[in-house]
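user: can you give me the structure for this one chain? C-alpha cells are fine.
assistant: on it. calling the predictor now.
[tool input]
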Amino acid sequence: MIKNERQYRITKNQAERFSQTLASFRQRSRETEGVHPRIAKAREDAVRSQLSDLEEQLREYESLKAGNFEIKNLNVVAELPATLIKARISQGLSQKDLAERLSLKEQQIQRYEATDYASASLSRIKEVVSALGVEANTSVPTTGSR
C-alpha cells in the first residue's frame, strides 16, 4: 500500500521501468535473442505481474487522493492502520498535515504509518481517529447469550 507522495513517486518510477523492460523484451523477442521461448515467456509474465501489482497500488492511491474512500464497519483491529492511512489520504492530508493537527512532528506520523501504528498507544490512535473525523463503531458484537 502506498502511504505518501514519496512512495507514490517511487512506485510510479518503478512502474515506468517495468513498462520499459516489458517493451524491451518484446523488441528483443522480435530480434530473436537466443533465449528459449518458454524462458522468454516466463520472464515477460513475471515482469507483467509486477507491473500489474504496481499499477493497482497506483490506482488505489490516486483514487484515495481523489477522495474516493468510504469507511465501512471496522470488524477487525488489524484493518485499523490501513483504514487510518486511507482516510488521511482521501481527505487530502499529508503526513505533515495530520501531525500538525495532533501537535506532533511529521516524523512521528511517518513512524506510526511505517509500522502500521504498532507503537501507537490506544489513546494516540483515538486522537488520530478524532483528528481524521472517522466515526468509530464502539459496540462489540455478541455471539449469543450465556
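assistant: here you go. The helical segments are 5-30, 37-65, 80-90, 95-101, 106-114, 122-132. The two ends are 41 Å apart (CA to CA).
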